Amino acid sequence: MITVHARATDAAGAPFHPASIERRALGPRDVLIDIAFAGICHSDIHTARGEWGAVRYPLVPGHEIAGTVAAIGTEVESFAVGDRIGVGCFVDSCRRCVNCLAGEEQYCRNGATFTYNSIGRDGQPTSGGYCDRFVVDERYALHLPEALPLEATAPLLCAGITMYSPLRRWGAGAGRKVAIVGMGGLGHMGVKIAHAMGAEVTVLSHSLTKRQDGRRLGASHYAATSDPSTFEELAHSQDLIVSTLSAHVELEPYLGLLALDGAYVNVGLPEVPVLVDTTSLGRSRVAVSGSMIGGIRETQEMLDFCGAHGIGAEVEVIGAGDIDKAYDRVVASDVRYRFVIDASTFA
Ligand code: NAP
Ligand code: ZN
Ligand code: ZN
Fold it and tell me: Whose C-alpha lies nearest to ligand 1, atom 20?
């Protein structure tokens, strides 16, 4: 077993504390990672605070992991010691079902093993990236672009792929108008990626306070959802809306922003369900969909795309002692635009 330094929480809302956790000894296809940075995703907060139901405490969250390879198992083929390496939201899947075979492991019919708060295929609970070392099967690890600093790369492993996947699937590109709802960790990545894909990007934020940043990241337009005239001025204008809101909103006004055959894709995961009026779907023949992260193949494609376009996250680097404060600031929408923990502070 490999002992690592981590930060854990023992109950919903309880503060994080230093903890030692055991990771498995390297199997033949396993890679040992020296973590450099771990991003804080709003999903970590929903989970740690018990907002999504049952949690296996003590919990070590973290699924935006960037670092370097420290050691490899005897049969590892695609990584060498010293390589840059990343891990995202899942660390295993059945590898046999139709979705795994299609490279959509996150939708594994037999249940993907998530990076934390999951039970691994060895029967052990999984622990995430708020720690200094990680062990993963090479088939669930990613190659990180050399061109980007590791702290700016970590958030791509969840926020980046969560936006890239629906933007690709629903055809964000030249000649298409794309609105990103909420400019937080996911949203700011969505603006950068959609702009790099060639789309005309609008940010819909609850205020105009981040307007200058939105423009700098690639948005052509920035509008406040707290202002009712926004919904009149932008009526039937958008081909695609990707919503990252972590809090519940009424869907109806947003559907009214879609052009004929437009699509509304929800990636934010508030605790309460939203209602859809089916007649309003027919009015502009719009689609309402959801999307969950992305498979390993598409995550690698996203990382290569971001490397080629120089797209990293805008980050605020913190120490391990500041996780609780950072959580409160994320919930208050007071983050520009992702907190990333410096893993050298876990020891
Ligand atoms: P975040 O950094 O907190 O961003 C969420 C944004 O939502 C905020 O910046 C804010 O944007 C807006 N918002 C928050 N509270 C609001 C309120 N009360 N009313 C209106 N707008 C509000 O969170 P994140 O890490 O980007 O994650 C966003 C959501 O996506 C979370 O629910 C998370 O669990 C989920 N998620 C889903 C996936 C997936 O695979 N589907 C992956 C990762 C995360 P403005 O200030 O610009 O309005
Ligand atoms: Zn996440
Ligand atoms: Zn499967």
Answer: 206
